[in-house]
Design brief:
The protein has 184 residues and is mostly helical. The chain has 8 helices and no strands. The chain has a single domain (3-131), classed as Tetratricopeptide repeat domain (Serine Threonine Protein Phosphatase 5, Tetratricopeptide repeat). Helix 6 (101-114) runs antiparallel to helix 7 (119-128).
């Protein structure tokens, strides 16, 4: 490889990284169309970058409603580098956007098995919710007593838990209550 080609490759990597950063900032600001354009630029500049591939997949699903290619890109990114908290969270975002809650929970759970202290994955788990064990374990889950006690437990936990927004965009980040208090 010639020195000119090396410098061109480094320049392309820098442009791709800048586009990825721009896309992340736009995604956090909830400007999905701008984020999608930036992630597309990053992915076109460096199609082998797993982060760009994964984020582009997320915005393909959210903006263009291209679920086939979006899921494929997120899965390819995970296969390329193995399990990574950010990529697993993106996979969960895609599945949540496609109303595949079970698969979203599975992706977050897989991430928590490997990184039990990752704050983003913990926030995603809390936002998605976890089905608790039956209150009275020797009775079936469908027993009327377990159902009533489960509803009471669920209501109490929601009143005393942090508030999370359940959307593919906000998944993994706690939402702050508007008035600084917990909801009732």
């Amino acid at each position: 490889m010639s020195p000119t080609t090396n410098s061109e490759a480094r320049e392309a990597d820098a442009v791709a990284a800048a586009a990825l950063d721009e896309g992340l900032a736009a995604f956090r600001a909830r400007n999905l169309s701008e984020a999608h354009a930036a992630f597309e630029r990053a992915h076109r500049r460096d199609p082998r970058d797993p982060r760009a591939m994964s984020w582009y997949g997320v915005t393909l699903v959210l903006v263009e409603r291209n679920s086939n290619l979006g899921v494929l890109l997120c899965d390819q990114a995970l296969r390329a580098v193995g399990a990574d908290p950010e990529l697993l969270l993106n996979q969960a975002r895609v599945h949540l956007a496609l109303n595949q809650r079970v698969r979203a929970v599975r992706a977050v759970t897989r991430g928590l098995e490997l990184w039990p202290e990752d704050a983003r994955l913990l926030a995603a788990r809390d936002a998605l919710g976890v089905r608790g064990a039956p209150i009275v374990p020797f009775l079936s889950r469908n027993n009327p007593l377990n159902r009533v006690l489960g509803r009471i437990r669920h209501h109490w936990q929601r009143r005393h838990a942090p508030v999370y927004e359940l959307s593919p965009i906000a998944l993994g980040t706690p939402a702050e209550p508007a008035d600084g208090e917990r909801r009732s």
